[in-house]
Amino acid sequence: MITIDLLPHLSKKEVFSKVEEFLNQEEFRISKIDQTRPWGGFFVLDEKQILKFKEAFFDEVELSEAQLEQKLSPKFLLVAPGARLSWQYHYRRSEIWKLIAGESAIVRSDSDEQGPEELMKIGETISLAKGERHRLVGTKNWGIVAEIWMHSDPENPSNEEDIVRVEDDYSRK
């Protein structure tokens, strides 16, 4: 499992640097780093390393050979203390999340009405269905969440535009 010392007072730059150092140490290839999100940001990993990513962070998740050949968008979400991602859902993907370092919470619901905030546990896999409303929430410390996208239509994979924001703290559409 990931071992990164995260402290609430660390700057975004310091946290991203620690995660990048960890990924390089573990020989993951980074495809994209996005530190521009108001809630934190993310790292997208090389799609060709999906098996390595799955074995490291989602070993208990069963994926067929066909699924492993699809785009699964391995990613790390970094959520800042007290920050929240938008209350959102997706038309073309389900998601699998796992808190791998720090602290965070999740809110989820089958309707636009938000459910209760639940603390995530390190190492616990969370499956989010296509269309299920959800929100990642920063608590008292930075949280690092590993994520895999399960595209419902492999010929038309989901992307960042497949976010339907029901509510957003940062007035994004």
From TrEMBL:
<dbReference type="InterPro" id="IPR011051">
    <property type="entry name" value="RmlC_Cupin_sf"/>
</dbReference>
<dbReference type="GO" id="GO:0016757">
    <property type="term" value="F:glycosyltransferase activity"/>
</dbReference>
<feature type="compositionally biased region" description="Basic and acidic residues">
    <location>
        <begin position="162"/>
        <end position="173"/>
    </location>
</feature>
<dbReference type="Pfam" id="PF01050">
    <property type="entry name" value="MannoseP_isomer"/>
</dbReference>
<dbReference type="GO" id="GO:0016779">
    <property type="term" value="F:nucleotidyltransferase activity"/>
</dbReference>
<feature type="region of interest" description="Disordered">
    <location>
        <begin position="153"/>
        <end position="173"/>
    </location>
</feature>
<keyword id="KW-0808">Transferase</keyword>
<dbReference type="InterPro" id="IPR001538">
    <property type="entry name" value="Man6P_isomerase-2_C"/>
</dbReference>
<feature type="domain" description="Mannose-6-phosphate isomerase type II C-terminal">
    <location>
        <begin position="72"/>
        <end position="168"/>
    </location>
</feature>
<dbReference type="GO" id="GO:0005976">
    <property type="term" value="P:polysaccharide metabolic process"/>
</dbReference>
<protein>
    <submittedName>
        <fullName>ATP phosphoribosyltransferase</fullName>
    </submittedName>
</protein>
<keyword id="KW-0328">Glycosyltransferase</keyword>
